[in-house]
Amino acid sequence: MTEPLHSRATTALSPSAADLLCRWVVRQAAAQETWFLDALERLQTSADERALHLFLGQVPRRLGKADLELTPQDLTAAHTVLPGWSPLGWSLDGAARVAGLLTFRGQRPFAALFEDLVRTADARELITLYRGLSFYPEPASLSTLVGAGLRSNMRAVFEAIAHGNPYPRDHFDLHRWNHMVLKALFIGSRLAPIVGIDQRNNPELARILLDYADERWAAGRVVTPELWRCVGPCADALGAYAALQRALTGSPAERLAAGLALSQTDTPSARHLLTSVPETAALIGTGRVGWSNLHHYEAI
Fold this sequence. Notes:
This is EboA domain-containing protein. By secondary structure, the protein is mostly helical.
């Protein structure tokens, strides 16, 4: 027997992503709470795609487009449902739409429905659709459509897949993963919010990024400090010490990034380079500088 949504929104002890989204939306829905819950009930019991499309179209008008308000406890709950998932930056209407998609039980494979939605979506709707990737039925079946999203020239759409979204970590093959990380650097998108950036690091990616850094320097262009995060663990195998030594002479953020990369490699060469920059090494040693806050030093 299917549990009523209004109950799931308030009492689920081991909530799913749909439960959490429903709970968060209800908390902000005010006078629209009844409409929202009734609409989800209809989606749960009806396989009518027209009802889904009507719901998706009405959500922004009914609930508005405010940011989704989240507490630290909400973020912890999200991480419990799926490690790495971060709903920070989601909108209220986006959360409601994904809740609707997760609630709907249609007759067609979800991938076919998702393809139709993506084909007719505007940028804001694409962002919403891609943010829910990890939780849709048969997520691996969405691979082709995700590839199209990664190729988007809209940075926000790319980041809906790449940032705070466990889908790439869990479903991308090596080639697509490496391509996503390289594109993030190419368009000036941060690496730190990519879920699994350290777990999915690999020698091939490190080699690609080291070559990319050399090309940037040869063209007289700056190298994004975060790049060294992926090179560091493979620095010895790639012979990347000369490049890291060069980065140690760069901006404060570049010096810290190179220092962090060297601290990931416990070799005599890495330790020797770190001792050549005692101030950087000391700052890293305090633990106050890491890959998650490196961007704070990029403007210094």
